[in-house]
Amino acid sequence: MEVDSCDRKQTRTPHFLKLAKYRLDFIRHCLRSFGIVNSWRLYRLLRSESERGKPIEIPAQLIGAPFLLRNGTSDVEAFYKIFAWKEYQLPQDFLPNPVRSIVDLGSNIGLSIFYFASRFPEAQIIGLEPDQANYKLLQANTKSINRLSLINGGIWNRRCSLVIENPNDRPDSYRLCECSPETPGSLSAFSIPDLLADHHLREIDILKVDIEGAEVQLFSEGYEAWLPKVHTLIIELHGEKTREELMPKIGRFFSRHLRNGENDVFVR
Known about the structure:
The protein is α/β, with parallel strands linked by helices. The protein has helices at residues 15-46, 60-63, 74-83, 111-119, 132-141, 192-198, 215-218, 223-226, 240-251; strands spanning 2-5, 55-58, 67-70, 101-105, 124-128, 148-151, 154-155, 160-164, 176-179, 187-190, 204-209, 230-235, 256-260, 263-267. β5 (124-128), α5 and β6 (148-151) form a beta-alpha-beta unit. The model has no long low-confidence stretch (mean pLDDT 90).
């Protein structure tokens, strides 16, 4: 498998130099993405003394439409990763032409879906998010997007019931575990074949996976049947142990691999 890299975190340098370089790169990416005036407006907005966790509206001129995120939370970091660092922007030869179907596993508040919809307006998009609070913002932030199906549920290697085992942690780091259907707060989980069948998809052009460690269960069994139907896989692998376990499993189904920020990208 051919391997490329554009990982901004791989260079071994002293910590203070890495921090200085990161901050300079961050400013450069913001200026390139939003311009001088809008970068300053965004800085002032996100540095405002609004109540932590209270949704604030990102102006339409920054990303094409108004968008709600919770200030002082991981939403802000996710916003910058997607719209300033462009962690889902891929080389053209890593994408099918056209992109017709996108499955977003771990949609959070909709930042990734919003990005994909603006980039591929004709694509059918399916988004899954297990947390109810995240899901409400996800619905609000994506209500203007056509050809979108949202599911308040989780992804697993089969249909089952799940529960969030760390509900007091950051909204972008919830972990799921299996439970009985009668467990308070339980939610439905689906497999990739379930999604393909329910939404009449034969293939997935882009599969984005950011599911906080549940990728271990997703690729524990049955993946050999559906992974060949994925053209481009964008996945965040959580922890070195997970990475060591899953890279060989995933890599043998794809011809090329790219490291882009925190994501591993595979193309068929």
